[in-house]
Design brief:
Layout: H1 4-19, H2 25-30, E1 36-43, E2 47-48, H3 52-62, E3 67-70, E4 77-78, E5 83-90, H4 91-121, E6 128-130, H5 140-149, E7 163-165, H6 167-173, H7 176-186, E8 193-197, H8 200-209, E9 213-217, H9 221-231, E10 236-240, H10 248-252, E11 258-260, H11 263-266, E12 273-280
Length: about 280
C-alpha cells in the first residue's frame, strides 16, 4: 500500500494543473448541475491493474459525494472489456476528475503489466525483476508501487538508500579497490554496498575486496554464468542491460538473483483504460 498522504499530494498537484484558474469550463457550461451518472472504468487491453487509489482520490477531491467501487483491485490481471471499478455521482464531478484519474491509472497499470510480463517469463528461476531510479520526477513512489503490483521488486528509492558504485564513481575514485575501501569507511552499519562491473577481471577484484552486491552490466549469458560461479553466493548477483521479455528468461537462467530494467518505469506502454457511461439521470 502507498501512504495516502503521498497519493493525496500527487493527485492534488494533477488536479490543480488541470483545473487552472477557472476550473472545468467545458463541463460547467454543457452539463446540467443536477445530472447524475453511473460509469465504469473498463480495460481495453489485457494487463495488470495499478493505481486505483489515485483514481479514487481524483474523483473524491473533485466531489466527495462521488462513490468509487473497486471491482478488480490493484495487482489483478484484467482482460479486455472487464470492469475495473464503478463510479457513481455528479456527472460534472466525474467528467472533471476523469482525465487526472486515467493519467495515473493507465501509466501505472502499464508499468505493472510490463513488470508482470517479465516476472512471468522468469518465474521458473530464482531471479526477480527489479526497477531502477529511472522514474518520472515526483512520481517515483507511485511507479515503484506499480512495479510491485506487477510482481517485481524495488531497487533503491533514492541516492540515500544504499551505496551503488558505478563506472564513473570507479573512474573518479581511481579504481575498484580504492572505491570499495573508501565506501566501506563511509557506510553506516546498516548500509549495503553494491558495485557495477563490466568485466570478469573487475568482478574478481570486487570479490577479493568484499561487497554486498554486484551489478553485472551488459554481460552476455556466457559471462553471466561465469560471474555467478565466481560469486558463488558470497554476494547478490544483479544482471542489467538488454533486459526484454524475449531475453529475460535466458538471463535469469544463468543463476543471477536479480534482473534490473529501467524501461519498466520510463518507457512501459500505457494500459488502455476507458471511462464508459452506463446510466445517466
Amino acid at each position: 500500500m502507498i501512504p495516502y498522504l503521498l497519493v493525496d499530494q500527487a493527485v492534488r498537484a494533477g488536479l490543480l494543473e488541470d483545473l487552472g484558474r477557472a476550473g472545468d469550463i467545458t463541463t460547467e457550461a454543457v452539463v446540467p448541475a443536477e445530472r447524475h451518472a453511473v460509469c465504469t472504468l473498463v480495460a481495453r487491453d489485457p494487463g495488470v491493474v495499478a493505481g486505483l487509489d489515485f483514481a479514487r482520490a481524483a474523483f473524491a477531491m473533485v466531489d466527495p459525494a462521488i462513490t468509487f467501487t473497486v471491482k478488480l483491485p490493484d495487482a489483478s490481471r484484467v482482460a479486455p472489456g472487464e470492469v475495473i471499478a464503478e463510479i457513481s455521482g455528479s456527472a460534472r464531478g466525474i467528467l472533471t476528475g476523469e482525465r487526472v484519474a486515467l493519467n495515473f491509472l493507465g501509466p501505472l497499470s502499464g508499468i505493472a503489466t510490463a513488470t508482470r510480463g517479465i516476472a512471468d517469463a522468469i518465474a521458473h528461476t530464482k531471479a526477480r525483476i527489479t526497477c531502477t531510479r529511472k522514474t518520472t520526477p515526483g512520481l517515483r513512489f507511485a511507479q515503484k508501487y506499480a512495479v510491485r503490483c506487477g510482481g517485481g521488486a524495488n531497487h533503491r528509492f533514492g541516492l540515500d538508500d544504499a551505496i551503488l558504485i558505478k563506472d564513473n564513481h570507479i573512474a573518479l575514485a581511481g579504481g575498484i579497490i580504492p572505491a570499495l575501501r573508501t565506501a566501506k569507511q563511509a557506510a553506516g552499519h546498516l548500509v549495503k554496498i553494491e558495485i557495477e562491473v563490466d568485466t570478469l577481471d573487475q568482478l574478481e577484484a570486487a570479490l577479493q575486496e568484499g561487497v554486498d552486491a554486484v551489478l553485472l552490466d551488459n554481460m552476455d549469458t556466457t559471462q553471466l554464468r561465469q560471474a555467478v560461479a565466481m560469486i558463488n553466493g558470497t554476494a547478490i548477483a544483479e544482471a542489467s542491460g538488454r533486459i526484454t521479455p524475449a531475453t529475460a528468461a535466458s538471463i535469469a537462467e544463468t543463476g543471477v538473483d536479480l534482473i534490473s530494467a529501467g524501461w519498466l518505469t520510463h518507457s512501459a506502454k500505457v494500459l488502455d483504460i476507458g471511462l464508459d457511461f452506463v446510466r445517466v439521470t
